[in-house]
Design brief:
With 876 residues, the protein is α/β, with parallel strands linked by helices. It folds into 4 domains: 77 residues, no CATH class; 312 residues, Rossmann fold, CATH 3.40.50; 253 residues, Rossmann fold (3-Layer(aba) Sandwich); 132 residues, Immunoglobulin-like. A hairpin with a 2-residue loop joins strand 6 and strand 7. Helix 20 packs antiparallel against helix 24.
């Protein structure tokens, strides 16, 4: 095999155009349409063929064209304006500067397996990655000191194309990193910075690439280096590709390698945020790194790091949660776990719901949940579902107290808004509307936009979408070798005056892309009305191993091939950011049909709503919080069905009814001037309600307030003075755990104060009136613990027919005194009776310490034991 010496050729930019490179290598341009116009002006056709990649564009444009631009005063003026715009962006005061000025030294590291920032950096698969990209952009806008950590995939996610039968095929194209807006991280010597990660019988090298996203830096690891074997070079080959062993190899590189990379660059984050469980191994490496540097125990390292780890769950679907067989864990971690200072069973227990079940797999979400004090779902409903799923990790806690909270996702508004709508908002909301996007009063100004102007703007976006679809369809047909007559058909599909419904997302079965096809004849009737034309645009990918998802796509394509539907129903191949952006900006209705409660959040409908598109969805994910009659339509009423086939039937009929009786009539009811004024009113209502609430400015501010700020403070407190605080906390927890079995609630007495007299309760189920008060007194033996170590609580609420407290809430009892014998202490509380019905209470003891992030954090809870009921066999 020949020896190859490599070198990189860079575009030769005339001196007056040098700053084009600076702009191209900072993805800030991706959410500034006026800067994008600068690159489009260089060569509109080449810009499109380069996939809107400015680095590739500058490498492909002719030297003659560059020389012409170097002399073009108009272009140079636009270039200088763009440079000034970028500089002003960096220099202006930010939200973080104003609100958290004292915390500028607390860095947050955001780990994700994918980042969907722009189509020119294709290292994303879907919503998870797009959210991660929006998270980084918003951190830049708000000035939050956050960096991203991920993997740079040589082939990214697959490119989709359909064969003549409509069956999805996957194609993996090589990414040329030297033609992408990424740069190698180098040492002072100029050589690439390399980190090494231990794998079985070897170490794997990874180089680090840096991406600039406005103020935010994103670091991506890449194992495709000659330092590795051919097999190890493919670890970062493709996103979500390969078998389970390849998945664990990737997640080791993301979590362990990602944290090593930060340390190699002298970056130690105060907070580590895991966007889904793929990066959960970073919790182990953070512990390992701390132990290596400070010589503390595993428990002490856990106490130091757990309070500053953040974990966001993103799925309610089992297939979306990575888990590994014990044999695979043994292969990859047999030499790693001893460095943590724990034994093999303790190590496996970190990733098991049941520590002691030797048959249970090692689950990445469980590892993240056990080693993170800050955990959340991505909508209110998803938080509830997540608490239900993961309750077994906290078996003694009521479900509503499981420490998984909710922070609903949002979108980066500037990224997803069309340039036409942006100009409209600037005119009526102000030039800085995006900086004040969370201000609800700002969005009231939507009502000031004349109906004619809003409708004209929306129609321009729709016309652009239709032109986009026709061009893409023509490309699809050319690739399949279609006849010239078919190519002519592609130029005539879709009607700008028709009601246009969009459905674009991952084709997982629970998202039910087939729901509109449940009654084909009824759908055909809807689509073929001449006086009220309706059309559908579908797009989306199925996972390469999801044959059911692929079959749904095939059914849609076959249905669309009918001669009377070919101009009314299209499927756009290779769903990506470009397709998503075009559809969300141009359709009239955004359709979403997940089977409740499988959708964690969903953000595509938020993107559409910002552009004046009206949502129609089942009550799942974010739509549970967003739905109001003024903002869109709801399919069904959020019912739960055991028979999913029957659910599909019922909800498909509901969908047809909505379209026939409400949506279509509203769209085609026109005023004398030809405007659908009632429809436009609902467009305004949708924007006014959704835009200020479902954006990443609100989302990231919520992460700062609820997680990042306190997590950074706890990291600083626990790591100061050579980890003295963490060591003390670990020792206290150990002592509490050892003494926990000695706790006893000895006696409980209850008095009733009805406002007239105080009497002692003597019956098991007394009848009380609203307004009465229960005075509860408990005597508890605390063993080796003191009253300062314990909270005694009354957990109270309505009681169901099985005698269980539902939707309960705790109230802390007040310490009164010691009885003077056997470390017994008296606690009291007054419980008001505010509502009628069957109610109950139970006593419980929890650990107490001021620096616990949550009283449930130690995993200890002692409930007053129920009375023992003698069994029949024990009767004399």
């Amino acid at each position: 095999m020949q020896k190859v010496r490599t070198f990189t050729i860079l575009p030769s930019l005339p001196e007056s155009l040098k700053e084009l490179k600076t702009i191209a290598y900072n993805l800030y341009w991706s959410w500034d349409p006026e800067v994008v116009e600068l690159f489009r002006r260089i060569d509109h056709t080449l810009w499109r063929s380069c996939g809107h990649n400015p680095v590739a564009l500058l490498g492909a444009v002719s030297q003659a064209r560059l020389e012409d631009l170097a002399e073009n005063e108009g272009f140079l003026c636009q270039l200088h304006w763009a440079v000034e715009r970028l500089q002003n962006y960096f220099q202006r005061p930010t939200w973080f500067d104003k609100v958290y000025a004292k915390n500028t030294d607390s860095l947050i590291a955001y780990f994700s397996a994918e980042f969907g920032i722009h189509e020119s950096l294709p290292i994303y698969a879907g919503g998870l990655g797009l959210l991660a990209g929006d998270h980084l952009k918003t951190a830049s806008d708000l000035g939050v000191p956050l960096i991203g950590v991920g993997l740079l995939y040589q082939k990214g996610y697959f490119r989709q194309y359909l064969n003549t039968d409509g069956w999805q095929q996957e194609q993996y194209l090589e990414n040329d990193f030297y033609k992408m807006p990424v740069e190698l991280v180098r040492k002072h010597s100029g050589r690439p910075l390399i980190i090494r990660v231990r794998y079985p019988q070897r170490s794997v090298a990874a180089q680090i690439w840096k991406v600039l996203v406005g103020r935010t830096r994103l670091f991506l690891l890449d194992t495709n280096t000659p330092l590795n074997s051919p097999a190890d070079r493919t670890i970062t080959a493709s996103l979500y590709g390969g078998d389970r062993e390849n998945r664990i190899r990737q997640e080791i590189m993301l979590g362990i390698g990602g944290f090593k990379a930060l340390m190699a660059m002298n970056i130690e984050p105060a907070v580590c945020h895991m966007n889904e469980g793929h990066a959960a191994f970073l919790t182990l490496e953070r512990i390992h790194s701390l132990r290596t540097r400070t010589n503390i125990s595993f428990d002490e390292a856990v106490e130091a790091t757990r309070p500053s780890n953040v974990f966001t769950l993103h799925t309610s679907v089992k297939a979306g949660n990575d888990e590994f067989q014990v044999e695979l864990m043994d292969k990859y971690f047999a030499s790693y776990f001893p460095n943590l200072g724990i034994n093999w069973n303790q190590f496996l227990g970190l990733g098991r719901v049941n520590h002691d079940d030797e048959t249970e797999t090692f689950k990445m979400p469980v590892l993240a949940l056990r080693l993170s004090a800050n955990c959340n779902g991505v909508s209110e409903l998803h938080g509830q579902v997540s608490r239900q799923i993961w309750t077994p990790i906290w078996p003694d806690l009521p479900q509503e107290e499981v420490p998984i909270r909710s922070i609903t996702n949002g979108i980066h508004s500037k990224t997803w808004l069309s340039s036409e709508m942006n100009a409209l908002y600037q005119r009526y909301l102000g030039s800085n509307w995006a900086d004040e996007v969370v201000d609800k009063s700002l969005w009231q100004n939507i009502e000031q936009i004349p109906d004619e102007e809003l409708w004209r703007t929306h129609q321009r976006c729709k016309e652009r979408l239709i032109a986009f679809c026709r061009a893409r369809l023509k490309m699809q047909l050319q690739r399949r070798g279609s006849y010239h007559t078919e190519l002519g058909w592609a130029e005539e599909v879709l009607n700008p005056e028709a009601l246009t419904i969009g459905f674009a997302r991952r084709f997982a079965t629970y998202k039910r892309g087939y729901l509109l096809l449940k009654d084909p004849q009824r759908l055909i009737k809807l689509l073929t009305q001449k006086d009220r034309p309706v059309q559908l645009i579908f797009s989306g990918k199925a996972h390469p191993n999801d044959t059911e998802g692929k079959e749904i796509i095939r059914q849609i394509v076959h249905f669309a091939s009918q001669s009377n539907l070919r101009r009314r129903l299209v499927f756009i191949e290779d769903y990506d950011v470009d397709v998503a952006r075009s559809m969300a900006q141009g359709v009239d209705v955004w359709l979403n049909t997940p089977r409740r409660p499988m959708e964690a959040s969903g953000t595509s409908g938020m993107k559409a709503a910002l552009n004046g598109v009206i949502n129609m969805s089942t009550l799942d994910g974010w739509w549970c919080e967003a739905y109001t009659p003024e903002a869109g339509w709801v399919i069904g009423a959020g019912e739960a069905y055991k028979d999913v086939g029957y659910q599909d039937l019922v909800e498909s009929q509901t969908l047809y009814n909505l379209l026939e009786n409400e949506v279509i009539p509203l769209f085609f009811t026109r005023s004398a001037s030809g405007l659908p004024r009632a429809w436009i009113s609902r467009m305004k209502g949708s924007v006014k309600w959704i835009a200020p609430r479902f954006n990443t400015n609100r989302m990231l501010a919520e992460y700062m307030r609820r997680f990042y700020n306190s997590a950074a403070a706890r990291w600083k407190s626990l790591s100061d003075s050579n980890m003295a605080h963490a060591k003390d906390l670990a020792t206290w927890k150990t002592n509490v755990k050892q003494a926990w079995s000695e706790l006893t609630v000895r006696t409980v007495s209850v008095e009733v104060d009805d406002g007239k007299q105080i009497v002692t309760l003597s019956t098991q189920q007394p009848s009380l009136e609203v307004g009465a008060k229960l005075r509860i007194t408990a005597a508890a033996k605390l063993g080796k613990l003191s009253p300062d170590d314990i909270d005694v609580e009354v957990y109270h609420g309505p009681v169901d027919s099985w005698g269980n407290i539902t939707n309960g809430s705790p109230i802390k009892m007040d310490y009164q005194k010691s009885t003077g014998e056997d470390n017994e202490h008296i606690f009291t509380v007054t419980l008001p009776c505010r509502f009628s019905g069957q109610h109950g209470f139970a006593l419980r003891l929890l650990p107490r310490r001021a620096d616990l992030s949550d009283s449930c954090e130690p995993g200890l809870i002692h409930w007053e034991a129920p009375p023992k009921i003698p069994s029949k066999t024990s009767q004399p």
